[in-house]
Design a protein that fits this description.
By secondary structure, the chain is mainly alpha-helical. The protein has 18 helices and six strands. It is elongated. It catalyses: N(6)-(1,2-dicarboxyethyl)-AMP = fumarate + AMP; (2S)-2-[5-amino-1-(5-phospho-beta-D-ribosyl)imidazole-4-carboxamido]succinate = 5-amino-1-(5-phospho-beta-D-ribosyl)imidazole-4-carboxamide + fumarate.
Length: 433
């Protein structure tokens, strides 16, 4: 991933130094396991632990001849050792090291993403609570529907991120896994016990069955969850972008002193943060598709997944980390324009109460069809003339035969729509006073 969209914490995990550090960590853990069964002498283990090291330039030099990065790595490490070098990579195949080490780096990335999710979860809970009773117009198909609250928007996202946190926890359990099972996964030159010990030392679980590689459905599931997380961020960003439109102006991203919105138009305040995370979320979803295609490999293994994963795993984890942090900043600097929210509530001149009028007539004994067909033409007149819905209802002779003026006026009460809001919050695990 390019530096622009990579936070330093994640960059450290996916750089080449960290790659070879993780490879060496796996190699030494295997030597320790062999020592545990009496294969590797204590003195050889001590020398390997003390002296085993590598130089990236030397790895590159060797790889220019071998055209095999793991062989180049093991030979570079061996050059730092004496006769004890024979225990480096003993009984292993390349992907024993590569896949297990990759899982270690994914685990490190997961710790960062888990913390990001918790921070955004806390922000959404705070905003849901703060704006619980701030009434706004709800929109379906982009058209004014009925009143809702700003808090309920944030509460829905809070509930969604809770689900994504649970999905992420499950995906972590599956993806933070190692395999030390040899060339085709049969443990011909190593033992299942060695694999179990190595993975225990590394703090990951061992895969119950593998071939030369870990099963790639694990990675497909993991990328799927990352794509779901990114998609939630885009969902939130799209709502903010709509509500920042000049014609709506109900909320907007913070605009820092000295910030510029356009190179041509000095008046512009664009939702650049929301647009940014929307675009990056699409990239993560595309990488999910690659992870699914990586499942389809030949026999016990081919290498077609390897090059793709060198791109998609650093990219997807880095992007999810980036968009979670950027959305958290957007929310913490979000401007809520209550005056515009109130103005927009009145934009359709009371039409947002049309269902209540219809239900009131049904309660008085009308059929649903009769009530609907009576209210709809009156509503259409509001669209065409701009008169207030309540005024037209008060003048309608058929309505007046059933509803008194006081009953009509009582319908136009925004607070009516908040009567069950507290119950919704309690369902989402937030107790409100």
């Amino acid at each position: 991933m390019i530096d622009r969209y990579t936070r330093p914490e994640m960059q450290k995990i996916w750089n080449r130094q960290a790659q070879f550090d993780s490879w060496l960590e796996v190699e030494i853990a295997v030597v320790k396991a062999w020592n545990k069964v009496g294969k590797v002498p204590d003195e050889d283990l001590a020398l390997i632990e003390k002296n085993a090291r590598f130089d990236i330039d030397r790895i590159d030099e060797i790889e220019s001849q071998t055209h095999h990065d793991v062989i180049a790595f093991t030979r570079a490490v061996s050059e730092s050792l004496g006769e004890e070098r024979k225990w480096i990579h003993y009984g292993l195949t390349s992907t024993d090291v590569v896949d297990t080490a990759q899982s270690l780096r994914i685990k490190a990335a997961n710790k960062i993403i888990a913390a990001d999710l918790e921070k955004l979860q806390a922000t959404l809970k705070e905003m849901a609570t703060k704006y619980k009773d701030l009434i706004t117009v709800g929109r379906t198909h982009g058209i004014h529907a009925e009143p809702t609250t700003i808090g309920l928007k944030f509460l829905r996202w809070y509930s969604e991120i809770n689900r994504n946190i649970e999905r992420f926890k499950q995906a972590r359990q599956h993806i933070e896994v190692g395999k030390i099972s040899g060339a085709v996964g049969t443990f011909a030159n190593i033992t299942p016990q060695i694999e179990e010990w190595v993975c225990e030392m590394l703090g990951i679980r061992h895969q119950e069955i593998s071939t030369q590689i870990l099963p790639r459905d694990l990675h497909a599931e993991y990328l799927s969850v990352l794509a779901l997380i990114a998609s939630q961020i885009e969902e939130m960003a799209t709502e903010i972008r709509h509500l920042q439109r000049t014609e709506v102006n109900e909320m907007r991203e913070g605009f820092a002193k000295g910030q510029k919105g356009s190179s041509a138009m000095p008046h512009k305040r664009n939702p650049i943060g929301s647009e940014n995370v929307s675009g990056l979320s699409r990239v993560v979803r595309g990488e999910m598709v690659t992870a699914f295609e990586n499942m389809n490999l030949w026999h016990e293994r081919d290498i077609s997944h390897s090059s793709a994963e060198r791109v998609i795993l650093p990219d997807a984890t880095s992007l999810v980390d980036y968009v979670l942090n950027r959305m958290n900043r957007i929310l913490n600097n979000l401007v809520i324009n209550e005056d515009e929210i109130k103005k927009d509530l009145e934009m359709t001149h009371g039409l947002i109460f049309s269902q209540q009028v219809m239900l009131k007539l049904i309660d008085k004994g009308w059929t649903r069809e009769e009530a609907y067909d009576t209210v709809q033409p009156i509503a259409m007149e509001v669209w065409n003339t701009g008169q207030h819905f309540m005024d037209l209802l008060l003048k309608d002779s058929k309505i007046k035969t059933t509803l008194s003026d006081e009953e009509v006026k009582s319908i136009f009460n925004y607070r009516y729509h908040l009567k069950n809001v507290d119950a919704i919050y309690q369902r989402c695990g937030i107790n409100v006073e």
